[in-house]
Each structure stands twice: as structure tokens, then as C-alpha cells.
Design a protein that fits this description.
The chain has 637 residues and is mainly beta. It is 9% helix and 56% strand. It has one domain: Maltoporin, Chain A, CATH 2.40.170.
């Protein structure tokens, strides 16, 4: 009876909050005011990116597909997680083993979740044991902007950049700026956040902190009814100091720690601790009318997960990665530049250990690996023709060496239209789990290798910015499991895709629409490939062929409103040992609100899964129903 009363009370709270938010969003829509001069200048600055070329470049001059999510976008969307932001992009699939705080995977253009390079201010943050990054630990409050480059960039960044590169830049506030806020929501969700900008001479430092926790919900359909909660605390320190007119230094320190609960027969909760630090020097010089910018950085990332079963220690998986890089950009003219660089990082998993079912300690047979890479990149941007060429060599200790390249060409048809063709190769290094995990790893594995061709056309049709992309990828030496349960290489995966995007700014607001079709199939002929034992030409799991995202933002009086519609088509998932199951298509509606209550006080609200749809992104795992979040933020900017 008590449980029923609690459920009724929670339902009442949800309904009341939903009515309040819906009433605000239902007010008459007013015309969006024309942008002020400083807003336009800010937008122009935000169009500059560095991920596509490892040097500052206007996004419109890059010969590759990319999307930039700005701080202004984040403020309007009011995301609860980083996945809320990434899921709105074309050809992005998100898979969650439950809700916030659980294991999450991001598939970019049909590629594996460990085939997209994740960077935080230039630092690799993926796990050397799993291969993927813990995106759930990255709080949206810590983010200044996100640059997403779609397509292979291994020739610039090295291993793992097959599907693309996602680089997250941490928050930057001006000296004296500060904010503090609190949010509450469904499943006893609580979030506390704060940030401040500190001025020191000709430099500044931003400190942001965030703490969130939730009782969660039952994440797995396993017959056990329990709540799987989580809590995370994050801090980021991002600073910069001008030493002279030509020399500057910037730095980063970030740390995220917490714990999460999940359903499992051997483990059911874990303590997580991730930290990253970076110190980077930027030096500008000029020789014989050639402008140079040299960047040297040194940093470290640690990814740590300590696992338990009912608070009994069951194992530790930890990656310690030391990283160094030296990159020089030479600007020979307004049209022509050359980038050259050397990267080095060392992975160490010697602290990792786990137990088998008999209680015996198991460790990796090999615990350290060095990776060294060097590249040359040339870019010519003329008034009509543009060209790009990149070549790189990487030596992966204990595995192999890899040569990769990128070639690109663009034609500027008129002021509003251009067409670009690019071709590139990439590779993904086997993880320590793939190579050395007890009773699973295979030390003789090769790296996965990819080859991708992309053609895209962008134009302005009246007041509508339009873009269409076609891409084709082949991935050889795919790493998967064979019938004995061991990691093995297989040939080959073929991925074909089309993306169509529209952006319209009208008197009613801003409309963003993207549609994508992704056909990702495994062409392996080996009958002992465990996930493809029944037939070849299998779809890769958890990737939908058809996806549609529509976003609408507008202003009502002084309030910013956001509405999002998402359609994700059917997907397949694996059922151990060799079966398949189809996950149904689903549609979601999410809403957001930012309403100033005074000069410094802002009301933030978000509704996710407005229609309370039941759906799955991973077999046997539940997803969250309708969720409501409301917060208050004090800020002086």
C-alpha cells in the first residue's frame, strides 16, 4: 500500500510539473528579434574549428563533414547528458544499457562505439581495456563546445578515428563571471552546479563543478525489481596565460568520480574515477614571410572502474595514458598552409585485475604499450578550388605499424554552394581486452583498417541552408568473437550512408531537420563468427537504417523554447550465443525552456520522452519513461 501511495505521489508531481511546462510552451509565439552586432560577431568566432585540421580553420573551409555544438545550443537544449546532445546529429546512434549512469555507446556513421576518437581539450580519454570512453561522466555544465568530425581522420589523429572524431572543449568564463544552480527531477534526480572565471594578469582560469545523483530505475528485464541509481561529482579547471606577445600557455585539469548500480550476476555496482590533465604551450613566429604557430602539449588521462558484487570487490580496470604531442602550422599565404606533427602516448593497464568464478586473480599477459605517430598535412583554399592531402605513419608497440592518408578536393560553385569529395583511410588498434583478456584475448590480432569515400554538396536554397552527404566505407580485419568465444579478425564490413540536412531561420524561430540512412552490414564469410553464424550480410547490431531529427527553437517574450522530435528505425541486437532479435522503431518528443525570472536568475526546464514511450536501445534493457527536470540558475553574464 505504501509503495502504491509513493507511486501515486510521484505521478502527481510529474503531472503537475508537465502542466506547468506545457502551459509556458503553449504561449503565442512572437517573431525572433534580429541578431545584434555582438551576437553575430560571436557566432562568427564560433565557426572557427580546429579538430578537422589540428589548426584554426573556418568550418566552411574544411574539406570534411563536421558539426559544432556551441554553449548557446547547450543552454537552449538543457541536456541531462552528453548523449542528449549527440543524439540530435545525423547518422548518430546511441545505445544505453539502461538510463543515465549506465554503460552507453555512440555509433558514428555505422562504425563501432570504439571506432570514434573521443578527445577532451586534445586529451584522449578512452579506455585501453574497453576501447570506448565513459561519456556518462562528462557533465554538460562543463562543456564550452563540441566539435564532431564525421569520417576518417586517422591521418591526422592516429588510431581509432575511423568513424570520426568527437572533441569536447571545457567551459571558459571571463574574469568575474560566475554561475550557480540547482535542479530536481524524475527518479529523485538532484544536480548542483557552479562555475567562476578568474582573471590573473593577461590570462584567466575557469573553475566549474557539478554534482548529480539519482535513485534511478530498474534498468534490466531480468526478473529482479530494483532501482539502479548513480551519483557523479565532476570538477574542471581550464586556464590560459599570455607570457609574451608570441608565447602563451594553457592548461586543463578535470576529475570525475562517483558510483553506479547495475544488474549483473557477477557484478552489480562500480566506483568510477576519471581524471585528465594537460599543459600546452603555443608559440607564434614568422620566418621569411611564413607565419608559424607551434604547439607542444603534455598530458595524462586515467580511466578507472572498481567493480563490486554487493560491495564485495570483484576487479579493477584502469588505464593510465601519458601523452605528448608537437604540432607546427605554417601559413605560407592566405590560401596555403602546411601542418606537421608528432604524437606519442603510452598505455599502462598494470593496475587492472579481476577474479574468475573460482576466486582466482586474473591479469593481462601484457600490460603496457607505446604508440608513436608522425603526420604531414597540406591545405590549399582558393576562391574556387580547394585541395587537401594528409599522410601519417604510426607504430603501435606489440601490434603493427600503420600508414594512413586523406585526400580531399572542393569546388566553390558560387557564394552559397560548394561540392566536396574526400577519401581517407583509418585504423583501430586492438584493445587490451581483445589481445590479452584471460580466456578471451588473442595476442596475434591485427588492427582494423578502413577506407572511406565521401561526396557532399551544400547550398542555400532561398532562406534554407541545405546539405546532402553520400559516403561508402569498407572495414577489413573486423575484430569480433568467434564460435569459441575468443577475439578474432574477420573480413569485412561495408557501410553505405546518406545524410540530408536543412536549416531555416524564419520569423517563427529556427528549424533544424536532418534525415539519415545508414546501411551497415557484415560481409564476413567465416561461418564461425559468433554474431553472424546464421548468415552473412548481417546488419551490424544497434544501428538503425533510418533516423530523423527535427529541432525547433524560438523566443516567447524573454523565454527561449526548444522542441525536438526524433524517429529511430528498427535495429537488430545479438542474443548470446548466436541469435538475433529486432528492436522496434521508436519516436520521442523532448522539450526545453529557459526563462529569465530577473536580471540574474534563470528558470531551466526539460521534458524528455514527453509521450512516455516504451522502447529499447539494447536488448533486455529498459529505457526511462517520461522524465521532468526543473532548475534555477543564478548567473551574472
Amino acid at each position: 500500500m505504501k509503495a502504491q501511495q509513493v507511486k501515486q505521489t510521484n505521478t502527481f508531481k510529474k503531472s503537475a510539473l508537465l502542466l506547468a511546462i506545457t502551459a509556458a510552451i503553449s504561449m503565442p509565439v512572437m517573431a525572433v528579434e534580429e541578431s545584434k552586432k555582438n551576437t553575430a560577431e560571436e557566432a562568427k568566432v564560433e565557426r572557427m574549428t580546429i579538430t578537422a585540421t589540428r589548426s584554426a580553420l573556418n568550418i566552411d573551409d574544411a574539406l570534411t563533414s563536421q558539426v559544432v555544438i556551441t554553449r548557446a545550443d547547450i543552454d537552449v537544449i538543457n541536456p541531462i547528458s552528453l548523449q542528449d546532445l549527440l543524439s540530435t546529429l545525423p547518422s548518430v546512434d546511441i545505445s544505453n544499457n539502461g538510463g543515465r549512469g549506465q554503460t552507453s555507446s555512440v555509433f558514428l556513421r555505422g562504425n563501432g562505439s570504439d571506432a570514434t576518437l573521443i578527445l577532451v581539450d586534445g586529451v584522449r580519454v578512452s579506455s585501453a581495456t574497453l576501447g570506448s570512453a565513459r561519456l556518462n561522466n562528462i557533465s554538460p555544465e562543463m562543456i564550452e563546445r563540441i566539435e564532431v568530425v564525421q569520417g576518417p581522420r586517422a591521418a591526422l589523429w592516429g588510431a581509432d578515428a575511423i568513424g570520426g572524431v568527437i572533441q569536447i572543449f571545457t567551459r571558459q568564463l571571463e574574469g568575474g563571471e560566475h554561475f550557480a544552480g540547482v535542479s530536481i527531477g524524475t527518479d529523485e534526480y538532484r544536480k548542483y552546479k557552479a562555475g567562476i572565471g578568474l582573471k590573473h594578469g593577461d590570462g584567466q582560469t575557469t573553475v566549474t563543478v557539478s554534482h548529480e545523483r539519482s535513485e534511478g530505475f530498474d534498468v534490466q528485464d531480468d526478473g529482479e525489481l530494483d532501482e539502479d541509481g548513480y551519483k557523479f561529482t565532476s570538477i574542471a579547471v581550464r586556464g590560459q596565460q599570455n607570457i609574451s606577445e608570441d608565447l602563451s600557455i594553457d592548461w586543463l585539469f578535470s576529475n570525475s568520480e562517483g558510483d553506479n548500480e547495475f544488474d549483473g550476476s557477477f557484478q552489480n555496482n562500480s566506483d568510477i574515477n576519471n581524471h585528465a590533465w594537460l599543459v600546452r604551450a603555443n608559440y607564434a613566429s614568422e620566418f621569411s614571410d611564413v607565419k608559424n604557430n607551434t604547439v607542444f602539449s603534455v598530458g595524462q588521462n586515467r580511466d578507472s572502474s572498481r567493480n563490486f558484487s554487493d560491495f564485495e570487490f570483484k576487479g579493477l580496470f584502469e588505464t593510465r595514458r601519458d601523452q605528448f604531442s608537437l604540432v607546427n602550422n605554417s601559413q605560407f599565404s592566405d590560401e596555403f598552409q602546411v601542418n606537421m606533427g608528432v604524437d606519442y602516448y603510452k598505455d599502462d593497464v598494470s593496475n587492472s585485475r579481476t577474479f574468475d568464478f573460482s576466486g582466482n586473480i586474473r591479469r593481462y599477459d601484457d600490460e603496457k604499450r607505446d604508440v608513436t605517430g608522425a603526420f604531414v598535412h597540406a591545405l590549399y583554399n582558393g576562391d574556387i578550388l580547394s585541395f587537401e592531402a594528409t599522410a601519417r605513419h604510426d607504430n603501435v608497440g606489440g601490434v603493427d605499424s600503420e600508414n594512413t592518408y586523406n585526400l580531399g578536393a572542393g569546388i566553390q560553385i558560387n557564394d552559397d554552394s560548394r561540392i566536396v569529395l574526400n577519401h581517407g583511410t583509418g585504423f583501430k588498434v586492438p584493445t587490451f581486452n581483445d589481445l590479452f583478456f584471460p580466456d578471451f584475448g588473442t595476442p596475434t590480432l591485427n588492427s582494423e583498417r578502413s577506407e572511406t569515400t565521401e561526396l557532399f554538396f551544400e547550398t542555400r536554397l532561398g532562406v534554407v541552408d541545405t546539405r546532402i552527404n553520400f559516403y561508402y566505407s569498407e572495414i577489413d580485419e573486423l575484430i569480433s568473437r568467434n564460435s569459441a568465444g575468443n577475439a578474432a579478425n574477420f573480413d569485412e564490413v561495408v557501410i553505405k550512408g546518406t545524410e540530408l540536412s536543412f536549416n531555416l531561420v524564419a520569423t517563427g524561430g529556427t528549424h533544424d531537420l536532418n534525415l539519415s540512412y545508414t546501411d551497415a552490414k557484415d560481409q564476413a564469410t567465416a561461418e564461425d563468427l559468433i554474431i553472424d553464424v546464421n548468415a552473412t550480410d548481417e546488419k551490424l547490431i544497434r544501428r538503425a537504417r533510418e533516423k530523423l531529427n527535427y529541432k525547433f527553437t524560438t523566443s516567447i517574450n524573454v523565454a527561449d523554447l526548444y522542441a525536438e522530435y526524433k524517429f529511430v528505425g528498427t535495429r537488430e541486437d545479438s542474443v548470446y550465443p548466436n541469435d538475433r532479435v529486432e528492436l522496434g522503431a521508436y519516436q520521442l518528443i523532448n522539450l526545453g525552456l529557459n526563462a529569465p525570472l530577473s536580471k540574474n536568475l534563470v528558470l531551466n526546464a526539460r521534458v524528455t520522452n514527453l509521450l512516455d514511450k516504451e522502447y529499447q536501445t539494447a536488448n533486455t534493457y529498459f529505457t526511462q519513461g517520461r522524465a521532468l527536470y526543473v532548475g534555477i540558475t543564478y548567473q551574472n553574464f
